[in-house]
Amino acid sequence: MKRTLLCIAILFLGFNKAFPGVYQNLLEANKLYENGRFNQAITIYEDILNKGYPNPALYYNLANAYFRTKQIGKAVLFYERAFRLSPRDEDIRFNLKYVRAFVKEEQSEKGFLFQLLVKVYHFLTLNELTLLTCFLYFSLSIVLTIRLFQKKTLVGGLSIFLAATLLLSGFWLSLKIYQEQIKDEAIILQESTAFSGPGEDYLANFSVPEGKKVIILQKREGWFEIGLLKEGLKGWIKKDMIEKI
Amino acid sequence: MIIKSSQFTAHSSRMIQYSTRTLLFVFLLLTFNCTLVADSYAQEITLFASVDKRKISLDEQLVLKVSVSGDISSLPSPKIPPIPGFSSYSSGRTQNVSIINGKVSSSLTFNYILVPQSAGKHTIPSIELVHKGKTYKTSPIQVEVVSTRQPPSTTPPVTPPSAAPQTPVPSAPAKEFFITGTLNKSRAYVGEEVIYTFQFWRRTRLLSNPRYQPPDFTGFWTEDLPPQRNYYTEYQGSRYLVTEIKTALFPLSSGKFTISPSYLQVSVDDFSPDRFFSDDFFRNFFSGGRRVQLKTAPLVLTVLPFPEQNKPQNFEGAVGDYQIKVSWDKEVTEAFQPVTLIVEITGRGNVKTISNPEYPSFKGFKKYETISSLNLSKEGYHVSGSKVFKTVLVPQRDGLINLPEIKFAFFDPKLKKYREISSAPPLLRIKPGKKQETVISGISPEEVRILGQDIRHLKTPETLIPAAEPLYQKTWFIILQFFPLILLFGSYGWVKQKERLTQNVELVRKKRAFSNAKRELKSARRIRDASKSRAFYILLSKALNDYLADKLNLPAAGMTQNDVENGLKKMNAGEEMIKKVLVTMEEIDLARFTSTGSDLGQMNRIHKNISELIARLEKILK
Predict the structure, then answer these.
(1) B82 and B108 together in one domain
(2) Is the interface score ipTM higher than 0.85?
């Protein structure tokens, strides 16, 4: 609550004045990047992030720097994070698609309708969707309350419409929460071998390329069980080879 | 655990075909003996000297190794004192750097070839090294030189004529052979070409290939200037065969430099007329020739620094005389098609060290790395050539492109001033083209193929607001979600209640019966007075009658005792209760009609009775 208030306060006061240091750091890192000193830029971007500024532009710039230093896995990871916070940003979409091409992550081509559905699904962020659902729910409640006092057909029709959209957006929201919060999606940071169990003594099952998106299924000490949905594979890889989005 | 170990071998010795055999020997020695004696874990510097043999013959050579090792990356060099009985010359050094657990330790081995000058027991004196105020010493080494052949050669080496710079003329009278070393100038700027010429004059036959040991050119960038020249020339009435070797030197820093002597070892027949009848004749005859070590005089070169005056901004240290030419690989191209910008710098000077010219910003182009190629020429015993810089550019739009001039600055030692040359690339016409993925080969490293497409550039947001955490996880947000529900259900309940009250009289009456009765009882209590006893009883009676009528849904007026009895029975009130109700009703009626003379105590009793009765009935008749 305090944080939300703070954010609102910052919005009104102007952020640059409130936190000139961090913003200056960002500009400095951008300059380093533009001079080709990507590793130094990465250090600063990471530092800002560690101070608690999960910002889509910051994630995007960091991913760019990682891409320039040929760390594709990290680049994919941070583009994904940026995408989640700002899914309608054209640059983020473009770069994410671009780096995915490097790791041969094939884009699903299941027809126009499916693609449209995917696009619509990714149109809103988790919070925007939460707010939309919340708004529909509030409106429906109010309309129903009015309906208790005044039985008019117009209000009735509206409430049916609101109920239907609420159902839809609720479904959408739960899907999103599942995908982003419950289902542990992660990116492979380094090409690694997946074993059949949590340990190097187990049989090596398959190898996963850097930058591949996988799902974390189980966690053991130092090991993660990952699942590759499309390939239908499961295997254990070392914890530090992977990072959650 | 050794993380990284690297070995560098540096030979300052110049290999010339004269001395291939010897140098091969030295080289082999160096290669196989580079294991170090020094303790590489030592905290301080360790100095150690060793020889490969303790006993040698006069025609053999000795290899002296001086090793310096320590845990510092840049080791100092020891000073070699003059070694009596030997002439020594450096034959390179071996450096071994190892990084163990992050600690750098290195050792440096200096190799010296010692050529014995006379037989007998010689002592190599201790070698000293001063580092950070501490003096390190090696122990002296005893070496025995024996003469293998009978009789031993006792001829002292011929002192080579000392040659002053710019005066290659030997001062000694006509000799069979001598060597000279000369520089073509005594003063030069940093980076300016200086030619070192070594000449070997002879008029006798050589028994074997001479061994040439060039000077130590430390502090210079060197370029050999082949081919070696042989010619005959007249000198002091004699005809000499002169062999000439030239080396181009480029001073790396300013200061006064001394170029150490060159050496040449020759074995010659000693049938020269002046020696023919000497005592040495027979000895020479048996020894099969004379071994002579020749030496040139050291030379001094003054290297001048670059003048600070009028130093151009983009001056990167190029010295010489150059021209610049800028061109495109094609005059007309299409947008999104690669085109190469070629910058060629040609002229005399150390072309190898020319660095990239300063490029303007290529607006509207995507620029790739610049690749340079070198074309070196040593014609006329001077270093010249050209360096070509190729930059691949991909135009991002169409139109006529007129790039600004590309400038290159250098120092001209002849004019003794800086010069800036420039050339503008010709007009480039770019036709509209389709954006496509163009793979440019040979530019990108293997792991990432650079396509014509690239990632989008950085973002510079106006502000840096941290993105909000998921709302649905916030407690206040979850609590907020209950409000519409409360509103909805609250108003539903209220509406329903209202409906019941307005639409169902029976229920209303039932509901209100108790509160009405209570109210009436209250007002009766207020007029509790003997004078008003009649009104009091009327109120009490009304209270009970109304209550019963409301509860049993009967009209209050004209309600008989029978009605009450039946109604109560229907509500399962119980015999006793019904009886009590009827009795009380009768009692009130009686009191009502015979009210005169009622006392206060009786009034109170009846009021209490009725109050209790109604309270009990309320529990039953809810």
Answers:
(1) yes
(2) no
- Region B277-298: mean pLDDT is 62
Q: Do B461 and A57 touch (CB under 8 A)?
A: yes
Query: Could you tell me the two tokens for A152?
Result: 């008019």
Distance from CA of A35 to the nearest CA of B (A): 12
Containing structural domain, residue B343:
323-374+384-431
Q: Would residue B566 count as lying in a domain?
A: yes
Q: How many domains does chain A have?
A: 3
pLDDT of residue B34: 39
- What does the alpha-carbon distance between residue B275 and residue B365 come to, in Å, rounded to a whole number? 80
Q: Closest Cα of chain A to B494: distance in Å?
A: 10
A133 pLDDT band, cuts 50/70/90, is very high
Is it the case that residue B558 has pLDDT exceeding 70?
Answer: yes
Cβ separation B463–A23 shorter than 8 A: yes
Handedness of CA B214, B220, B225, B229 (dihedral sign): negative
- φ, ψ (nearest 5 deg) of residue A143: -60, -40
Domain that holds residue A170: 124-182
Contacts of A86 (CB under 8 A, 6+ apart): A56, A57, A92, A125
The whole model's pTM is what? Answer: 0.39
Bond into B151 cis (ω within 30): yes
Are both B338 and B292 inside the same structural domain?
Answer: no
Q: How far apart are CA B287 and CA B267, in angstroms?
A: 11
Distance in Å, alpha carbon of B403 to nearest chain A alpha carbon: 22
Contact A148 B492 (CB under 8 A): yes
What is the count of structural domains for chain B? 4
Residues A69, A156 share a domain: no
CB pairs under 8 A between A and B: 104
